[in-house]
Amino acid sequence: MPRPVVSVVVPTRDRAGYLDVTLRSLAAQDLAEPYELIVVDDGSSEGTAEVAERAGARLLRPAGGSGPNTARNAGIEAAQADLVALVDDDTEAPPGWLRAIVEGAARHPDADAFGGPIRARLEGPAPRACGREDAPITSLDLGPADREAELVWSANMALRHAAFARVGPFDERFSTGGDEEEWLRRLRGAGGRVVYLAAAGLDHRRAGDDARLRALMRGAYRRGRNMRAYDSDRDRAPAIGRELRVLAGCGWHTVRRACPQGLVMGAHSAGRVVEAVRPSRLR
Fold this sequence. Notes:
Elements: E1 6-12, H1 16-27, E2 35-41, H2 48-54, E3 58-60, H3 68-78, E4 83-87, E5 91-92, H4 97-107, E6 113-115, E7 118-123, E8 147-148, E9 156-160, H5 161-167, H6 179-189, E10 194-196, E11 202-207, H7 213-233, H8 240-256, H9 262-277
């Protein structure tokens, strides 16, 4: 087999249904050069191996540790290509996505890491939105043209293996808050460049009951706690008074706009407040 031009790493745990959609989209990329798919199983109970095998993906099960950064580190270390793309297991990539990553990396040879648009896609009984709030799951839109960026998100991110070797692995203490941000800040602090590739967009999905208000609020609350813990670790956490004002603003938005998705913003803010009052460990 020829050496792949890019390796795609997909961390996953107990989400075989989502993973199946992700891998089918990745297996159907229109890239002419060879590429490899690597699924890193972070302790799934069932289904992951079968889904990975159907897609022709290599399956890794790292020993010791847990969490998405442990899986990312294992996948990057095992990758055969100099360019490594990271996607979450709840995404769906259009056929031209990987080609846009490869061509973008070639256009920006001095860049070390890349990211692309992330479009939130709620399938099922999603709560109504008023259009003034952010998407209730991770999304990113930095415009219609390539540009240098401070941060991109690991749902749609790529990096050069040389940058990973130079900067070191992702910090495995972090889960869903600061997990990729900490690595990117380390990269930029060492003089590395991050570039947003406008053509390399994909969809970030929530389907079925996961698109319901309660599930979205639970996820937002966890992210809020983790982000507050990450900010505290960097000595950048705002005062509790500011956190409470943000929480009050979320409540006001929900009532004034009759906006159910305001409750998702409120759950994120509530997670930050709880973490400020009762700090937990980073994981």
